[in-house]
Automatic annotation (TrEMBL):
Record-linked PROSITE patterns: FAD_PCMH (PS51387)
Name by which UniProt lists this protein: FAD-binding oxidoreductase
Chain ranges of the FAD-binding PCMH-type domain: 45-226
Alphabetized InterPro entries for the sequence: FAD-bd_oxidored_4_C, FAD-bd_PCMH, FAD-bd_PCMH-like_sf, FAD-bd_PCMH_sub1, FAD-bd_PCMH_sub2, FAD-linked_Oxase-like_C, FAD-oxidored/transferase_4, Oxid_FAD_bind_N
Organism listed in the record: Plastoroseomonas hellenica
Pfam families in the cross-refs: FAD-oxidase_C, FAD_binding_4
Source lineage: Bacteria, Pseudomonadati, Pseudomonadota, Alphaproteobacteria, Acetobacterales
């Protein structure tokens, strides 16, 4: 972990002006108040900052941005601070201010007829889900950090999560954005339109830009009919190919019913059972490979239980499924999902791990898991590959856990060797080195080889056009 420097104090004129614009709740300068915002969730980075800006409105943010731009002070947007790649952490110079949108957390409008809601960037994802439920609708974006992650953060990183196979990433769930540019100008693009073919779709530049082009302050989000019927099955399967075969069986039977299809390795489930209180193995015997399948329909009598039983019976007869458990109640379904959701926390409690958020075409997922697991085990003897994730959309977290009893620091020092090992195989399979976590600070050095040439040059030109002074989240995304 890098050493930190004492933060450089803000110019007196800037500090005074910010205090006047933001009020007593909108500017934090006490080191104790700032400290929680200076480290990322994984503990990879520890930064320094003289202040946290906490605007209470879009107008306050715009005014604060204009002031920071005038004084050439760099700004680091931060939502729930759950980035896996250091995307929301200031650097060690102590000259970057953190901009938290936590106070921009209002639901501005919700329309169950138009199936849209307009919410501010600091609204926690779980609160958006609950708001949709309150009007008998569904906001489907779901991920492990949904109790902390914010709407601005999930849009800025184009988060995926568990239901991408059916509903798409965050980008597909967004209709319009309100944005503050690096010079303080405000773009009001909060249009709840399915069709709006009027020039460049600027909103899509900001989704996935990780705060390097400006601030997302509010969004119009799509809602969907809520599920009237839901079935969740946890299955022990023969191998990776059998897992994919089971996905195809469910997809071919009723593609619209598959809300999630998650692959879990035997080691990953073992760690969840070991470290997370209340997590138990729901099938009779341990296996090396599991899947969790979630079926849902807005039709109250969709027949999902007979569908699930029929598909699983076929897969059992074919030798693809070894054993399966279907949740009999909402509590049991939640317990089955918890095995999957607690994977990151279980790995954290076991020791140091290196994350590899990668994607390949769905048909290549079994080969990727096999090849990467073998290569990683050979690279660091005694280490434990823990692949898991969204098989239905080709995104697997090809993680590696440190050897038991090993030195965590020595293991983490080889992070880039580990990532390179995985990425070499992923590249051969036509995949991506970042599926849903983004680039942040961790993976900027990979951009040149993966997205170099005209593609990366176009990104740099866009950045230079919108943020010529380089004040928006510097050191992230672009090398």
């Amino acid at each position: 972990m890098p050493d930190t420097h004492a933060p450089a104090p803000l110019p007196a004129a800037l500090l005074s002006a910010l205090q006047a614009v933001l009020g007593p709740k909108g500017l934090l300068t006490d080191p104790g108040d700032i400290a929680p915002a200076l480290a990322d969730w994984r503990g990879l980075y520890q930064g320094a900052s003289p202040a946290i800006i906490r605007p209470g409105s879009t107008q306050e943010l715009a005014a604060a941005v204009r002031l920071c731009a005038r004084h050439e002070v760099a700004m680091v947007p931060q939502g729930g601070n759950t980035s896996m790649v250091g995307g929301a952490t200031p650097d060690e110079s102590g000259r970057q201010v953190v901009v938290s949108l936590a106070r921009l957390n209002r639901i501005r409008a919700i329309d169950p007829v138009d199936m849209t809601m307009t919410v501010e960037a600091g609204l926690v994802l779980k609160a958006a889900q609950d708001a949709a439920t309150g009007v008998d609708c569904l906001f489907p974006l779901s991920l492990g950090a949904e109790g902390t992650a914010t709407i601005g953060g999930v849009l800025s990183t184009n988060a995926g999560g568990n239901t991408t196979v059916r509903y798409g990433n965050a980008r597909e769930l967004m209709l319009g954005l309100e944005m503050v540019l690096p010079d303080g100008q405000v773009i009001d693009g909060l249009r709840a339109l399915r069709k709006d073919n009027t020039g460049y779709a600027l909103r899509h530049l900001f989704v996935g830009a990780e705060g390097t082009l400006g601030f997302i302050t509010a969004a119009v989000l799509r809602m969907f009919p809520r599920a009237r019927e839901n079935e969740v099955a946890f299955c022990a399967v023969r191998d990776e190919e059998a897992a994919l075969a089971l996905f195809r069986r469910f997809r071919d039977r009723d593609e619209g019913a598959v809300r999630a299809f998650e692959y879990l390795s035997g080691i990953g489930v073992d760690l969840a059972v070991k470290h997370i209180e209340g997590v138990t193995l729901p099938v009779s015997e341990r296996a090396d490979h599991y899947v969790l399948v979630d079926l849902a329909s807005s039709r109250p009598e969709a027949g999902l239980r007979p569908l699930a039983e029929a598909v699983l019976e076929e897969a059992l007869e074919a030798g693809e499924v070894l054993d399966a458990a279907i949740g009999e109640s909402e509590g049991q379904r939640a317990a089955l999902w918890r095995i999957r959701e607690e994977h990151p926390e279980a790995q954290k409690r076991e020791g140091a791990s290196v994350k590899n958020d990668v994607s390949v075409p769905v048909s290549r997922v079994p080969e990727m898991i096999r090849r990467c697991s073998a290569a990683l085990a050979a690279l660091i003897p005694g280490s434990r590959p823990v692949p898991f994730g969204h098989m239905g959309d080709g995104n697997i977290h090809m993680n590696l856990e440190q050897p038991e009893g090993g030195d965590p620091a020595a293991f983490l020092a080889r992070s880039h060797d580990i990532m390179d090992c995985v990425n070499e195989i992923v590249r051969e399979l036509g995949g991506s080195f970042s599926a849903e976590h983004g680039i942040g600070r961790l993976k900027t050095d990979m951009m040149e080889s993966w997205r170099g040439g005209a593609e990366l040059e176009a990104m740099r030109r866009i950045k230079a056009a919108l943020d010529p002074a380089g004040l928006m989240n510097p050191g992230k995304v672009l090398p």
